[in-house]
């Protein structure tokens, strides 16, 4: 456990340092990782649609949204990499608009169907996730704002990693060597 905490904390610290030292490249990585996340979420939604509801409107909305999500995710992954980062800001705006529309569709679907608790909970978290992602991606559109946000996130990650490393080392249990006994 101690070793795992140290490794994860070190990786978080390194990630924070990378964000601080190179915010522009970090923005491209954030866009590409977000694209991968969108693709995986779309595939998951398509696979699980049959399980969640038999309502044809619900299925149609989810499948349509998932196909659009998949295409936007592919654009977010391929375009910045192929164009050497030239379209990162444009893709960032596309992703922000996508997440805003996804939030609206999640809210509509949530209101439209009187779903079971698990489906409602999942749609509600999808709504919150989409609103948060949209706000962050719109904020990352301005270059100075984007760099500042990325550097602040990097500083927080670096500090959290270092603090966790120090805490893990300090809180390590003191182990007595019981092979040596006092009376022998």
The biggest sheet amounts to: none
Net shape: globular
- How much of the sequence lies in strands comes to under 5%
Number of strands: 0
Gyration radius, to the nearest Å?
22 Å
Poorly predicted tracts of residues: none
Mean pLDDT: 81
Structural class: mainly alpha
Order of helices and strands: HHHHHH
Q: Helicity range of the residues?
A: over 70%
Distance between the termini: 33 Å
Put simply, the count of helices is: 6
Describe the fold and architecture.
83% of the residues lie in helices and 0% in strands. The protein is built from six helices and no strands. Helix 2 runs parallel beside helix 4 and helix 4 runs antiparallel to helix 5. The longest helix is centred in the N-terminal third of the chain and has 30 residues. It is globular and about 55 Å long. It has 184 residues and is mostly helical.
SSE topology:
Blueprint (H helix, E strand, L loop, with lengths): L1 H20 L1 H30 L3 H27 L5 H25 L4 H23 L3 H28 L14
Helix pairs in contact: 1-6, 2-3, 2-4, 2-6, 3-4, 4-5
List keywords for this structure.
6 helices, 0% strand, mainly alpha, 184 residues
Quick summary:
By secondary structure, the chain is mostly helical. It has six helices and no strands. Helix 2 runs antiparallel to helix 3 and helix 4 packs antiparallel against helix 5.
């Amino acid at each position: 456990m101690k070793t795992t905490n140290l490794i994860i904390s070190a990786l978080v610290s390194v990630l924070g340092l990378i964000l601080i030292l190179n915010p522009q490249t970090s923005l491209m990585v954030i866009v590409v990782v977000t694209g991968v996340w969108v693709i995986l979420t779309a595939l998951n939604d398509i696979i699980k649609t049959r399980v969640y509801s038999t309502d044809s409107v619900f299925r149609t909305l989810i499948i349509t949204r998932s196909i659009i999500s998949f295409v936007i995710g592919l654009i977010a992954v391929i375009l910045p990499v192929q164009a050497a980062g030239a379209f990162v800001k444009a893709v960032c705006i596309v992703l922000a608009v996508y997440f805003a529309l996804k939030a609206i569709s999640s809210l509509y679907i949530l209101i439209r169907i009187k779903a079971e608790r698990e489906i409602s909970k999942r749609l509600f978290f999808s709504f919150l996730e989409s609103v948060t992602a949209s706000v962050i991606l719109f904020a990352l559109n301005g270059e100075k704002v984007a760099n500042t946000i990325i550097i602040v996130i990097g500083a927080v990650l670096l500090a959290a990693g270092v603090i966790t490393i120090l805490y893990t080392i300090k809180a390590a249990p003191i182990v007595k060597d019981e092979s040596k006994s006092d009376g022998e």
